[in-house]
Structure formats: structure tokens, C-alpha cells
Amino acid sequence: MATVKILSVDDEPSLELLMRQYFRRKIRSGEYEFFFAGNGLEALSVLYQNPDIEIILSDINMPEMDGLTLLAKVNEIRNPALRVIMVSAYGDMGNIREAMNNGAFDFTTKPIDMDDLNITIEKAIKQINYVHQSQKEHAQLESLKGDLSTASDIQQYILPNIFPPFPEISDKVDIYASMGAAKDIGGDFYDFFRIDDDHIALVIADVCGKGIPAALFMAVSRTIIRSKGVQFDNVAECMMESNRFLASYSVDSMFVTVFYAIYNIKTGFMNYCNAGHNPPHLLKRDGTVSELPLSNDTIVGVFEDLEYHESTLQLEQGDTLVMFTDGVTEATDIEYKEFGVERLDNILRQQSNSSCQQIIESVKAGIREFVGEAEQSDDITMLVVKRL
Fold it and tell me: Cβ distance 383 to 204 under 8 Å?
């Protein structure tokens, strides 16, 4: 336990002897350490040399600088833990009242009742300890906020964010993606990478939960799916191997929904596996919109020995596949109404001639207009690919 440092300010020398005698046990044990000054000017000098003093016992009527002036000077220090206890004659209630109105913690009257003063000091110490604890928690919170900000930057950095991602084939395929976390860091992610000269892997996923656990599981999931995607050219095998690995290391029943596809940039043919994710929407060149069929395959990361299945899709020139997480359709307004599939499709129908970036920006604008002042409750992530 830290020593409590107390400054007694009084022009009566006998008070120092009284304090040392009464508090001798606490002084010897190192619980209290006393400093003494004869007036306000001396007290300021002592405070300057010992800034960790946190209790001041100050007489009001003193030469050179009185207690009220000292109190005003102490207030200028702006130490939230510092407590001033005023000491004055019983009949000096006007000055005592002024001192209390100007921030004194408490008061005691002369002749001093040492038992009562002891109780007052202990009460001040409790408040000082509370201030220190609050300051510690505030510092920890600020540190955590800093860590979260750094984690958010890292999370955004590990997601592909250079567009067009493959300039050498930008005349054949348009790709754009966006992830907006509901909190500092999120559990959604997207990814795309070359498998060979003709094929690109596309991933969009949503980890259960939010915050740091979801973000960590997100980073692991992205790394595993990418590594397995390079090893296996079959989307179902990639999901089976990714699931086997993630399920064996999953903590607290963490899981992730995944839509994983391999796209042929020459033919527009796509093999995909939907592991518990919401179905992407197909925007045809003529403006019609349809959902891909619901998948019977389940989430990734819960049970090790699960079988996943492959489906296929043919993109014609001008067709666009819009992949998204449920934060898009489940975005809510202040009345908790959901944005929904119908609003999403209404926006998409107007975007058949738009770029993938324009499509995403239009959907995000529609969501912002719909939710208004409501707080974002889930990550909003989209990955859009268009055959040119």
C-alpha cells in the first residue's frame, strides 16, 4: 500500500507535535507521511517539492497567505486526487462555508477533535483511492482504444484494397469489394487471389460474434482458406480441408459462414461452394436480379468431418455477381425494420450498366438513407465481380 502524504498548514507550532503524537503508529508503519508549513506560501513551496502530496490540512487564518488563498492556488494545480480539509475556529462559519463552496473536501474546527480528524482523513483517502482507480481504468481504456485502432488498421491492411486488383485482366473482369465494421474491428472478410493464369478465387465470409475474438478468428480463417485454395482446385475440397483445420482449433464454438468460388476469366464459368452463407445475387445484363439457390452445406469450423458440395454458375458478358454478408440485408432503422432483400434488389436493378465499385457505393448509400440515425449493428461487407 502506498504511503499517504499529508501536508499540515498552520501557524501554531504545537499542532505539529499533536499530529506526530496522535498519528505516530501510522507514521512509523509508513502508512502516513506528514509535511508541515506555517502559512500558504510555505505550503506552496512544499507542494512544489512534493507533488505527490494528496491531503492538505489547512488553517484558514494565517499570516502571509491565508487558507482561502491557498485553496484557490491548490485548485489551479488541477490534481483530481488532491483533497483539502480546512481547519478554523468554530465561530468562523462564514469562511468555512466559503471554503466548502470553493472546493474544499471537508472541514474541522478548533480545538481539533483528533478522532474526528482521523475519520475525515480516512474518508478522504477512500475518495483518493477511488480517483486513482478511475484514472487507472481510464488509462487502460485509452490503451485498449489505441490497441483496437491499431487492430482495425491491421485488419483493413490484410484485406485486399488495391483496385483493380489484376490490372492485366481488367478488360475481362471487374472486381471491387468493401468491408465496413460495425465496431472498431469486425468479423467479416473478403478475399480474391489468382490460382493460375485463367482462374481467380473469390471469398466472402462472416465470422460469428463481434470484437476481438471474431477479428482473430477472421484472420485465421482468411489465412487457412487462402492456403487451402492454392492447394486444391476443387471448391468443395477447399472447404472440407479448411473446415477440418478450423474445427480442430475452434475455441468457444466459433464458426464462419463462407461463399467460396473459382472464376474462369476466359469463359465466365464459376465453380462455387456455399458453406452456410447467404446466397449471392446475380444481376443480369438486362437488369433482372435473382438469388443463387440456397445451399444445404453448413457453416465452417464446428464439426471436423463434414462434406461440402460444388455448384456451378455461368456469367455471360455484362452479368454481375453480388456477394454480401447479412449485415447488408439485416441493417435496421431506428424502428428496427430491416433493409431487406427487396430494397437491395431494387437498387441492383438500376445498376446493370454500372461498375462494381458504383454498385457497392449505390448499395451503401441506400443503406445509409434507410437506417438514418440508427447505429450500425453488424459488419457490412460486399464483394462484386462482373464479366466484361
Answer: yes
